[in-house]
Design brief:
Elements lengths: L1 H6 L1 H18 L4 E6 L2 E6 L5 H8 L4 H11 L4 E6 L7 H7 L3 E6 L3 H14 L5 E4 L2 E2 L4 E7 L8 E2 L15 E8 L12 E5 L5 H6 L2 H4 L4 E6 L1 H6 L4 H11 E7 L10 E4 H14 L8 E8 L4
Parallel strand pairs: 3-4, 3-10, 4-5, 6-9, 10-11
Antiparallel strand pairs: 1-2, 7-8, 7-9, 11-14, 12-13, 12-14
Helix pairs in contact: 10-11
GO molecular function: methyltransferase activity
GO biological process, one term: methylation
Keywords: Methyltransferase, Transferase
Length: 300
């Protein structure tokens, strides 16, 4: 099998990383690294999503990286990476534009350790500050699900009667520290771009960070009614915030669904469209989008 993979480029491309990950597990190898356009990135050897894609393509979330580079356009500013994982969106902008101050938030200990390693390896001396925290509406310690294989699917744990449709049952559970974004010692220098990708915790992030997030000039937030329902969050918290603070919005496919068409328009219309998905997508973990908010409204 190993010889076949080495000698067949197509076979290696399709199955090589999976074989390497399985072999690493057998040999008690806990970390792998891959090189690409953002440098050499390390992750757990069972990372079958983020590091695998980076190893196979040399990229991760290229649309977001390009958007950030264009947004800051050689000037300074602040990037809030809420749900930073191993740094695949923080590190490209920190390498490209050292004037940008980046704040990266990642609660899971293994991902956080690799985030720190990747920053040290790829952008030493950059203006990146990390927080091993889950952002929430209150400060406390909460249970947290660990997803095996897709290390971007870790999430806060919440007991619910909703049917689990994404292999949530039986996951390892750890405890993580939570804090409110508005309570943290961060300094915002404009322009400000905030990215929130927290597997359903978005309503809690917004509730605990309204003051800070209202200062963002652009906001990208994942919208997944299924994941929000699994965590017992209220999607209306997100919609009210978007409508109160931004004039324009766009509904876009996530990087996992790149190539699909999105739609844009006044934020009131975008909110109306998102309202309709709360019930329609509640039982479907595969229906989710990114919402991009721009055109910051003046504070009342």
């Amino acid at each position: 099998m190993a010889k076949s993979l080495l000698n067949d480029r197509a076979l290696a491309s399709e199955y090589g990383y999976l074989y390497l990950s399985c072999l690493a597990k057998k040999l008690n190898v806990v970390q792998l690294s891959a090189s690409g356009q953002y440098g050499t990135m390390a992750s757990s050897s069972n990372d079958l999503s983020i590091l695998r894609k980076y190893a196979e393509t040399g990229l991760w979330a290229p649309e977001l990286s390009e958007r950030l580079i264009a947004f800051f356009a050689g000037a300074g500013g602040t990037y809030l990476d809420i749900g930073a994982n191993i740094g695949m969106t923080t590190i490209p902008i920190a390498r490209q534009n050292q004037q940008v101050r980046c704040y990266a938030f990642e609660p899971e200990p293994v991902n956080y350790g690799n985030l720190m390693r990747n920053i040290a390896e790829n952008c030493p001396g950059s203006r990146v500050q990390t927080f091993q925290l889950a952002l929430h509406e209150r400060e406390e310690v909460l249970p947290f699900d660990i997803a095996d294989g897709n290390l971007g699917d870790h999430r806060l744990h919440f007991e619910t009667r909703l049917a689990a449709k994404q292999n949530e049952i039986g996951r390892k559970i750890i405890n993580v520290r939570c804090a409110r974004l508005d309570d943290l010692p961060i300094e915002l220098q404009g322009p400000v771009f905030a990215k929130i990708d927290t597997q359903g915790a978005e309503p809690y992030v917004v509730a605990g960070g309204r003051r800070t997030l209202a200062q963002a000039d652009a906001l990208l937030i994942e919208w997944s009614p299924y994941h929000m329902a699994r965590l017992g969050g209220d999607p209306q918290v997100v919609l009210r915030f978007l409508e109160e603070h931004f004039d324009h919005g766009a509904i876009e496919p996530t990087d996992a669904k790149a190539g699909q068409r999105g739609e844009s328009g006044p934020m009131k219309e975008i909110v109306r469209r998102l309202q309709a998905t709360i019930a329609a997508w509640r039982d479907d973990p595969f229906n989710y989008v990114d919402v991009v908010a721009t055109g910051k409204l003046a504070s009342p």
